[in-house]
Every structure is written in C-alpha cells, then in structure tokens.
C-alpha cells in the first residue's frame, strides 16, 4: 500500500474498532499531537484516544493529499444526535507504518475542543460501567472528588470511596449491565467543564430482581496539572411530594 492507502486503512480500523489492525499500522515509537494532546506516546494514544462503542460517529473523508511519506486528510463526522464536526490531520509515515499524527480541530473556539475531550471521558465511563470495570470508571476522578449519590450516604468524598461504591454497585448485578446516556450536554472553558444527562441502567440483580431505572446525573470537571479531573458528582431522582417516595418508574 502507498501512504494514502495506509492512512485510509488507519481510519477504517479506527471507525470499526479494529485495534489489532491499528496496532500493526502504527510504528512502535508512534506519537500523537492535537490541541488536547502534546506529543503523547503510542500507549497513551490507545489509552486516551481509542474509541468506545458509546461514542460511535459516521465519518466522511473529504480530501486526501499525499506527497511521499506525508499525508493530509480532511474529514467530517456526524454523531448519533446529528451534531457534526470537521478535522484535518497530518500523517508522517516511515517504513510503511505511521510514525506521527498531528490533529487540527475545525473551528477556532477552544471551548469546543475542551467539550469534545470531556464528552470522550464521559463516554469512556459509560463503556467502563458496561464492562464492570470500576478502576476505569474513576480514572478521571480527582483524589478529593465530592459525590452526592441516590442512596446512603448522603455525600462522600474521595476517588477511593467512589471506586468502592461503584464496585459494590457493579457486584450487585449478575450478568451484563445495560447502560446508556440520553440528552448528554457538555460545556467547557479552558480549565473547567460541566456535563449533565439522563442515565439509564438495565440488568438483573443478584437476588433476581430486574432493574430498569432512569436518574439525573451531573459531573463537574476541573483541569488539574494539565488533565481533566471530575471534582463533583451528583446523581438524583425526583420524588412524589404526596407519598414522600422516590419516583423510580419515570422515563424520559
């Protein structure tokens, strides 16, 4: 394959979540830069940038310009909610493998780039929940994160406490957990961000009870030492003022 073919194969592997092919296409000393990533390593790229199922988009490649081992690509993506964005990427190849990528986000509003990164972090948490992976669920939590939950205790602090609570909740299910977000809204500046959504979980508890529950969730982020970290978590459900009981059967 020529350089343009290799880059197209790279996009195909990314969009189809074919990590094995992507690993073959990237050089061992591959590096990646974007407005959000400063020359990160191959390992860090897969950790931070590899997509999960909840973040699926449709991509249309608009232009490909290749000269020798250098390739420029402009593409447009459409999310499931209809939102569109356009990026340009510059690839440098060596020995038939991709050595470095520079990403230039479309538009000139840095807050959009920050919101994109926060959206990816939230989607990573959704995928971790489905995988029952409590460690990954708290990867982007600040050490002193403050959490307000839908059950006792009323509040608790610290990433370790959040992880312990998450593990207890995951262990209360048998088999797979269904988890989805609806109406996710993300806003951000250069050093602070906020997300809110309606969250839905389905599954079977270890006591045989079938669960299908919606609740409201908000996350506050701060950029600490150059990394986005969740510093505030809030989950809640409405309640019936006449009965004083939580309204757990509500749906959007």
TrEMBL record:
Pfam families: SnoaL_2, SnoaL_3. InterPro entries: NTF2-like_dom_sf, SnoaL-like. It comes from the Bacteria. Gene3D superfamilies: 3.10.450.50. SUPFAM superfamilies: NTF2-like. Residues 7-100, 120-239 form the SnoaL-like domain. Transmembrane segments: none annotated. This is Nuclear transport factor 2 family protein. It comes from Luteolibacter rhizosphaerae.
């Amino acid at each position: 394959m020529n350089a343009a073919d290799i880059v197209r194969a790279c996009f195909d592997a990314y969009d189809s979540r074919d990590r094995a092919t992507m690993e073959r296409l990237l050089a061992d000393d591959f590096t990646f830069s974007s407005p959000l990533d400063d020359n990160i390593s191959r390992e860090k790229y897969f950790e931070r940038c590899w997509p999960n199922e909840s973040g699926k988009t449709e991509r249309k490649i608009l232009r490909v310009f290749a000269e020798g081992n250098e390739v420029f690509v402009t593409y447009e993506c459409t999310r499931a909610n209809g939102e569109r964005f356009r990026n340009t990427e510059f690839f440098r190849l060596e020995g038939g493998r991709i050595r470095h990528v520079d990403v230039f986000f479309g538009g000139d509003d840095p807050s959009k780039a920050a919101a994109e990164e926060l959206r990816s972090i939230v989607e990573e948490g959704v995928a971790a929940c489905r995988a029952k992976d409590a460690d990954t669920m708290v990867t982007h939590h600040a050490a002193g994160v403050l959490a307000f939950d839908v059950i006792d205790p009323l509040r608790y602090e610290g990433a370790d406490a959040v992880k312990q609570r998450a593990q207890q909740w995951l262990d209360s299910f048998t088999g797979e957990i269904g988890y989805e977000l609806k109406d996710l809204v993300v806003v951000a500046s250069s050093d602070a961000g906020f997300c809110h959504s309606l969250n839905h979980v389905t599954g079977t508890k270890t006591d045989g009870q079938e669960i299908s529950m919606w609740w409201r969730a908000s996350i506050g982020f701060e950029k600490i030492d150059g990394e986005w970290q969740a510093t505030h978590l809030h989950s809640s459900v409405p309640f019936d003022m006449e009965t004083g009981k939580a309204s757990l059967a509500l749906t959007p």
